[in-house]
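WP5 quarterly update. Target: Sphingomyelin phosphodiesterase C-terminal domain-containing protein. Source organism: Cherax quadricarinatus. Length: 168 aa.
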Amino acid sequence: RYESTIAGLFYGHTHKDHFLMFYDPEVPERAYHVGYVAQSQTPYHNLNPGYRVYTIDGHYEDSSYRVLDTENWVLDLDEANENDNPRFYQLYSAKEAYGMTDLLPASWNNLVDQMKEPNSTVFDEFFKYYTKDARPYREEGCSEDCKSFILCRLVSSDTSDKSHCDGL
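Structure tokens (predicted):
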């Protein structure tokens, strides 16, 4: 009921870089919000440290205050340890990486639909960002069970309702 009032949902942190979809209980196929889950800055369990920068529709009359883009930055620990020269670099921007014209809930929902496809290269890119491009995950990849688990996590912000996980 506060869809038109709440401009953004921001969460921290599950150590991984992802988002959560919120669906209308009256019209379950309609995504009405997206929650941004920022990655951790800690190198928890084989992960690189990372942080996110949000570009928000700014303060002016009739501003939407919505998220216009995100930049996600990481520090490659393997590289830093090898070269003794830690540096953060931009891993990706959401709009550019996913070819999105906007970050509205419907656009994120379309992205999830693309990731559901078998052999989805979009999912492969998402998994790289989800794991902050950490070497162990890069080398192991993500099995079909792993993919189903992650996609279900994205579409079930209400953990008591897994109906959007059907068919993953």
